[in-house]
Amino acid sequence: MNLKSTLSLATVLILLSCFSAGAQNFLEGGKVTGNFQLDAQVYRADSAIGAYEVEEKIRMNAFANLLYSNGNFNAGLRFESYLNPILGYDPRYKGSGVPYWFGSWSNEQFEITVGNFYEQFGSGMVLRSYEERNLGYDNAFKGAKVKFTPYQGVTLKGLIGTQRFFWEQGTGIVRGLDGEFALNELFDKEGKCKTRVTLGGSFVSKYQPLEEIMANDTAMLILPANVASWATRFNINHGGFNLDGEYANKMNDPTSVNNFIYKNGESLLLQASYSQKGFGIIASAKRTDNMSFKSKRTETGNSLDINYLPALTRQHAYSLSAMYPYATQPNGEMALQGQVNYKIIKDSKIGGKYGTDVAVNFSRITSIKREIAEGETSIGQSGTVGYSSPFFTFGDELYFQDLNIELQRKFNNQYKALLSYVYLNYNIDVIEGHPGEPLVKAHILIAEITYKYDLKNAIKIEVQHLATKQDEGDWLQYLVEYSIAPKWFFTFSDQFNYGNPDKDRRFHYPTLSAGYTQGSNRLSLTYGKQREGIVCVGGVCRTVPASNGLSLTLTSSF
Amino acid sequence: MSATTILFKLKSMAILLAGIFLLVACDKIDEPFTKKAASGGNDTTGGVTKRVLLEDYTGHTCVNCPKAAKIAQGLKTTYGDRLVVLAIHAGGFANPTSGGDFTYDFRTDAGTAWDSFFGISNVGNPNGLVNRKGYPGNHILSPSAWGGAISTALAGEPELDLAISNQYNASTRQLSTEITTTFLSPLDISLHLVVVLTESGIVKPQRNNDATIGIVPVIPDYVHNHVLRAAITSTWGTQVTYAGSTYPAPVIKSFTYALNSGFVPENCEVVAFVYNSDTKEVLQAAEADLVQ
Predict the structure, then answer these.
(1) Domain hosting residue B67, numbered range
(2) A392 within a domain of the structure (yes/no)
(3) pTM for the whole thing?
(4) pLDDT tens for residues A354-378?
């Protein structure tokens, strides 16, 4: 699309062809692999649900990854094309090009990568770059990365780069250093100790040229051009027990996301788990305080994040239980999560012939407690420290609470069923930017049954119900899926907002889809309506418009 | 190598690396965190003032937008005549609702077309453009970035000047406006002129989530300023120069416009700006009261 990516692509191809011209041995033993995905949507206007006319009528996203590996050498690239980006994707992706390419060489001690790359330090609280093509998320680094293993059990990583900003690079430069020490490999080479301990530490710093930003009408902010953050982590494992912890700290980083305050950022994540055959228990706790870390001060969207703050909530797989998803609040949250998995033994009265899987999960996320800092007169004012916050105190505002119970049982070779209950408390005011609206309390019930009547044919019926007195009221969804293994599937589903307090907005969102799989290729077609939504990230909200039309997805890997 | 030696080597390596890193890689700012801003100053080249166009894309149900409008107003106070502000109501948050406080409609054909072209509400609101610079990859600016972008834009030399002369007939509600574009440097690029009407002081409800600005969740008597009311030229304007015509002579364009019955003439202004037809970047802007 632009000169830079064309040049990069040309360079990679020239390098590859030079090698092929001069040394045939280089190509022998080389392997090319990759994958491809194309999503296209055809839109129809539907004023009832608020689906507006789309001028292009058809929009398409496509990408292809190509990877060449030969012994110690790897090179690859990704071609992306958005003509134009499908609704819900950032319009700045419009166009085509090669935004991702790299070359890497590795041996026992070193691994060197140049070009674009992804990396994670520990749990990602100070540095994590990753891509999620289906969400339009990509904060890849472009620069150089080195991984060095001086002795067995010691891994050192260093990187320096700029970050992807659609088809350009962000203005900031990120530098990072990480060390991980597997103590058992260093001090217990014979493996006599049953307890395994790993320690780690990271330093990450960003640089962005200074700019003029006003704190208020008369005062200008004195900004730090370099902002550093560090983290330490440990992991202890003994048989079925596991204990993980990571603490991260960020120095003064006034940005649009935190309203230009100078407070340090802190985050602590602790996780303990125990598992044995048929039983598992996990407990996690997390505190996040002012930990948004971007390589551009004034960025408010989903781009240019240097770190990643996980949401301590369960990812729901069913549409109604996923209707109110929690979005991590980088400015501050206190979270707790616990999960118990138990398999009721088979051949018992309650367990049935094959046993029953029971999963109970609970998570609760509140704000942090903010108090006026020494010497200040209010909380969160630009150009000040901002606030002070006692470390172990839970704030008064509930952001999210989720209690869910799931039972799965296989009755015989033909029948399999799932039953799930979810009770959600969702702070729609904070998460979706609907100030003044009350906490959404929803009870969700899901029942799914799969019936396989022979080796090839199976039918699945799913019924979901969401009951709430707030927001849009009650929803009912049913889905019928018929599959002919291994190639075909056909699905019909409808989402009906029958309980909407506004009688004129009690819409149906039906969809019909079919798919065909052949080896590692898959094609699916869906026709139907999709409801609108609002997404708020860092003080900026956007409406994801409702849509009505046909969509096609093609994926392939080779 | 013995365990002690390994440990010692690792420790010293870690401390050395950490030390180097921390020494070079961070700026700790001590209180106070702000300094007094230099006053606007007066940047003119041979009597011509460089003026910058700030477009604030907003909507009445956009809860974070009052904060952005406050930033725009603060910048207007700082830069005075050198900043021309347009509040463009477009996108999902500007859509009128079927009932309640937000049935009013501030959208315009031009505003919706620009919003769709520059993709702003698709990215989210509030967001804006300063001189429409950086299109297509880097033009959308969040409110906190507006100040820096405006100050950078003002540092440039004006390449042309715009003069607006308005004649308004109160009884017929007819506006006759004459825009004179004078070129100060050799320009052989294609330029277009856009002229629009804005209105300030409109009191209507606005959704809000910042208690320091007003009542949450709705400010019932919010004062909307610099609202884009209509385009006097077509959406993308009229051509004033053609590529290849160096040092063009001054161009005078006249337009007429019948004021909508709902607009208050004393609160209206005519805004004109000239932009590069290919890059869309605005070279100069001007505004003048409707009733002079």
Answers:
(1) 47-158+192-232+263-286
(2) yes
(3) 0.86
(4) 888 999 999 999 999 999 988 888 8
